[in-house]
């Protein structure tokens, strides 16, 4: 039987990759994207599915209860995959208000509307509300600490992770209080096609292609656990189909890498794959800059639960994933060049030049 999904934030990085995945694997399901089209969104991310009969794009805000209610009813939605969020830590440090609004109030609005919709339909057990969250809610690890598991206490350190933690708690409470069939996934850092240039990997790729400095915060020894976005989408598919309501699943790539090593690898790949780089070898562009305030030192995910209970494991190695990503940014200059807009330049100046002086 075909299903009807509401994908919030589907014009952003992971949401768009998920929409591509779902439309390909389940072509008879209806997919409705609700996205406010903030600076991080791009309608072109959905170009591959726009013409499909059972796809619909709606521009709207998850904080707008009437828009959400109307969509749930008219589209007869049975699954919400909730990606919509303010997602960049540096922006949350500069301007945190939008993070509380979208990530906390927006998630609350969706939960209330979905609860009303589910109750009106006599609480079908097949309904799902999948909340896509982050490993950053668990805080920062020391070098010898065990990786985050689902029972690790929350200790968010940035306005971004605090707002995501708040939304995770609401999701949990709606299962416990109302038995609304919610599930939370907490995932490590994603990378791959369609990622907005402000995040580390696309920023480095694009700055190399433009011959601009490659900013490394602090000593470059912070560690992230990288996961290729296609593997994340596959994990979310498995969780929607087989995950248990009320549960949390951690998703990670088993790929802990220090930032400086990652950037050096990207430089080597670009030197090999990109013709006529403005600065060659590109590692000359590496520049240490002032650290991000409150910069978490290390994230690492223990993904044993999803592996043992649902049979999911990442399939793309970091070397393969980085190569695919570098090749994608090389082949899609027409996608990323327009994103380096006046708004992006203003953020860049504020984050890397003006704020750096205050830190
Ligand atoms: P993104 O910033 O690329 O995309 C977010 C999307 O949400 C954009 O299309 C934006 O327009 C939309 N949006 C923002 N506010 C909205 C609002 N009020 N109403 C409707 N739409 C709104 O983010 P992403 O990297 O694709 O992340 C998606 C989700 O995955 C987020 O919830 C994030 O916390 C989570 N996550 C991301 C990562 C990562 O590495 N990128 C890792 C783990 C979890
Ligand atoms: P980012 O992609 O912003 O993801 P997150 O902060 O959510 O983990 O950053 C990944 C890592 O790279 C993080 O340790 C901060 C660091 N970083 C830099 O060193 N320079 C940069 O210009 C950016 C954007 C990030």
TrEMBL record:
GO biological process entries: nucleotide-sugar metabolic process
Q: What EC identifiers does the entry list?
A: 4.2.1.46
Swiss-Prot/TrEMBL keywords: Lyase, NAD
NAD(P)-binding domain residues: 6-323
Please list the reactions this protein catalyses: dTDP-alpha-D-glucose = dTDP-4-dehydro-6-deoxy-alpha-D-glucose + H2O
Which cofactors does this gene product need? NAD(+)
Name any one Pfam family assigned in the record: GDP_Man_Dehyd
CDD domains from the xrefs?
dTDP_GD_SDR_e (cd05246)
Q: Which domain of life is it from?
A: Bacteria
Q: Which InterPro entries match?
A: dTDP_Gluc_deHydtase (IPR005888), NAD(P)-bd_dom (IPR016040), NAD(P)-bd_dom_sf (IPR036291)
NCBIfam families in the record, alphabetically?
A: dTDP_gluc_dehyt (TIGR01181)
UniProt lists the family membership as follows: Belongs to the NAD(P)-dependent epimerase/dehydratase family. dTDP-glucose dehydratase subfamily.
Database matches in PANTHER family: DTDP-D-GLUCOSE 4,6-DEHYDRATASE-RELATED (PTHR43000)
Stated name of the protein:
dTDP-glucose 4,6-dehydratase
Give the species this sequence originates from.
Answer: Komarekiella delphini-convector SJRDD-AB1
